[in-house]
Design goal:
elongated; seven-stranded mixed sheet; 499 residues; Leucine Aminopeptidase, subunit E, domain 1; 2 domains
Length: 499
């Protein structure tokens, strides 16, 4: 897709998109088109169920006295208050609507729109951003796609004031989108193609952007004492890995301590000896979603040359059953020296994260640490598929994450941590056990991780098990991998930590 921004005359070729507010109020350009067509726009609305509500579209083919191939009326809902995400969703819906209808070019006119105090140029950039995000599709392994099934849309022009400013804003948003699409591609890959070694190799792509990438193999991990992570991969023929990515975007900053983001990268999770049911197990290819998000975040930040120092660290393993797999009842000694009784080998993600969390704190001394993981099925029971759960030892950072999530429509909800939950993972045989019982499963998993946070380091755990993958289309994403977390954390960094 090619994206551009113009002012002046509105194109008279291809499809044209104009806004309509709830109640049928036309934008200025829509009013002009209605007049030019002899009232055909309003007549089309009157003879349809289109009310201008948010998300509604009305397609008018070959309108009278109009040279454009079609006029697409886009409902935006109530005129005030619009949000920036409404413009992104508009871009996504336009792409979806027109890409399968043979149109190759479209112009979106956003005259008269205001949202969150942003000028028209910024809103125009976000329309294109939403369309770019929606254009992603995972068809890497399809060999017989018919031409008529391929998206036809090749270019989008957004008509707005100050097209130069719109282009400058979009160029930054485009880098963020590339990070999201990188994550979606990684999460979508089948487990025979994406396994710990090949996943680690994908990080090398970031070196071209100036990211320093270090990969630890099993021998190095063993020397370091990362026995909790290594135990998860014992049953697999694939070697486990740890990937460390460093972006030094603020070398002159007086605050040299980096922000740290840690991701769970279990490239396939059978549950190990505590084997999962067969039905739906194919979905466990996205159990590396936390690591995928960290990869995408690093690509986004480095791509737009973010003025901040960041470390991204991911533990990569494949959890398989075999004669060499860890067993329920095993006790492992983590990198930190703390011992863990493994009562359920399907509670493996917390073992992976434990060692990486400890390593990052010791080696990089971060000013804060945020981990992401498709950690528990219990979070779906609590929050469903649209909101991620967060757990933290820091009120300020939690509040900032909630605000960032609201801004980009990747919402998070804070759940509690407390001593009464922490006691549930005490073990009779070791320092702790890796499960806390049937109830409060997401909380006890977070309590487990908190035991590896040292010296009061500000920390947030984000459980993305319910949001990393979607079974239905969304305005800016086809069903499948969502890339959740990249835009959330990029906005969090941009709003609060850049020099």
């Amino acid at each position: 897709m090619k994206f551009s921004f113009i002012s002046g005359n509105v194109p008279t070729t291809g499809a044209l998109v104009v806004a309509v507010y709830e109640g049928g109020e036309l934008s200025p350009t829509a009013q002009a088109l209605d007049k030019a067509s002899g009232g055909k726009i309003l007549r089309a609305i009157e003879n349809s169920r289109f009310k201008g509500k948010s998300g509604e579209l009305l397609d008018i083919l070959a309108p009278a006295n109009i040279d454009n191939s079609r006029i697409l009326l886009a409902g935006l809902g109530k005129k005030s208050p619009l949000k920036v995400v409404d413009l992104e969703n508009l871009g996504g819906r336009v792409y979806k609507e027109l890409s399968g209808k043979g149109e190759t070019e479209v112009c979106v006119v956003i005259d008269g729109l205001t949202a969150e105090g942003k000028d028209e140029a910024v809103l125009a950039a976000h329309v294109s951003h939403g369309s770019l995000l929606r254009s992603y599709r995972f068809d890497t392994y399809k060999t017989n796609v018919k031409p008529e099934s391929m998206p036809s849309l090749q270019s989008m022009t957004v008509h707005c004031a100050s097209p130069e400013n719109a282009q400058a804003t979009f160029e930054k948003l485009e880098k963020v989108a590339q990070g999201v699409l990188f994550t979606r591609q990684l999460v979508s890959e089948p487990p025979n193609r994406l396994y710990p070694e090949s996943f680690a190799e994908q990080a090398k792509e970031l070196e071209t952007l100036g990211v320093k990438v270090t990969v630890l193999g099993e021998a190095e991990m063993a020397d370091l004492g990362m026995n909790a992570l290594l135990a998860v991969g014992m049953g697999s023929a694939r070697d486990s890995q740890v990937v460390i990515m460093e972006w030094n975007g603020a070398p002159e900053s007086r605050e040299q301590k980096p922000l740290a983001f840690v991701g769970k990268g279990v490239t396939f999770d059978t549950g190990g000896i505590s084997l999962k049911p067969a039905a739906g197990m194919e979905d466990m290819k996205f159990d590396m979603g936390g690591a995928g998000t960290v990869y995408g975040l690093m690509k986004a930040l480095a791509g737009r040359k973010a003025k901040v120092n960041v470390v991204g660290a991911c533990g990569l393993a494949e959890n398989m059953p075999s004669g060499n797999a860890q067993r329920p009842g095993d006790i492992v000694t983590s990198y930190s020296g703390k011992t863990i009784e493994v009562l359920n080998t399907d509670a493996e993600g917390r073992l992976v994260l434990a060692d990486v969390l400890s390593y990052v704190q010791e080696k990089h001394k971060p000013r804060l640490i945020i981990d992401l993981a498709t950690l528990t099925g219990a979070i779906l029971v609590a929050l469903g598929n649209d909101i991620a759960g967060i757990f933290s030892n820091n009120d300020d950072i939690s509040s900032k994450l909630v605000s960032a999530g609201e801004a980009v429509d990747e919402r998070v909800w804070r759940l509690p941590l407390a001593d009464c939950y922490d006691k549930l993972i005490d073990s009779d045989a070791a320092d702790m056990k890796n499960i806390g019982g049937r109830f409060a499963g997401s909380i006890t998993a977070a309590q487990f991780l908190q035991r590896f946070i040292e010296n009061g380091t500000p920390w947030v755990h984000i459980d993305i098990a319910g949001v990393a993958w979607s079974a239905k289309d969304k305005p800016i994403a086809e069903k499948g991998a969502t890339g959740f977390g990249v835009r959330l954390l990029e906005r969090f960094v941009a709003d609060n930590y850049e020099a």
